[in-house]
Predict the 3D structure of the following.
Amino acid sequence: MKKLILLIVAFVMSSGCNEKDLYFKNITMDELDKEISTFFLNQQNENGVYLFQDQGERIYVFLNGWNVKQGEAAPTFSNFEIEPDGDTLRIHFEEQLTTDYENKEVDNRLIYEIRFDRNYESLAIFKNGKETHFDVSSGR
């Protein structure tokens, strides 16, 4: 009888593991399929924040600070985070400016994949704690 109860408890606990989790990860351009990478490559000549929505299951956010005019500071990005807030998914990142052009380790071109745990009514994006907007968005 104890074995049967343990088996039932184990089954009930393991069945809850199939639920989707909200998470994000930093990825490279090479990890994207052709349609998404083409969209982002078409945006690479303008610094900004770009969004690609992939059939409601996930989104991709491209932070591009690659283009720097001589004598100007280069944008770099850090502290990317996501936060559910009711029916809104809040996306946060920090942008810093640097004049250290020789540093090849600066993060001035980042792509994040965000997988949803459920449907969200809206997205809100925040740069340095202030709400901003996506420069261009696309999807399929």
Observations:
- The beta strands are 23-27, 48-54, 58-64, 74-85, 88-98, 109-115, 122-127, 130-132, 136-139.
- Residues 20-139 form one domain.
- The first strand starts at residue 23 and ends at 27.
- The chain is about 15% helix and 45% strand.
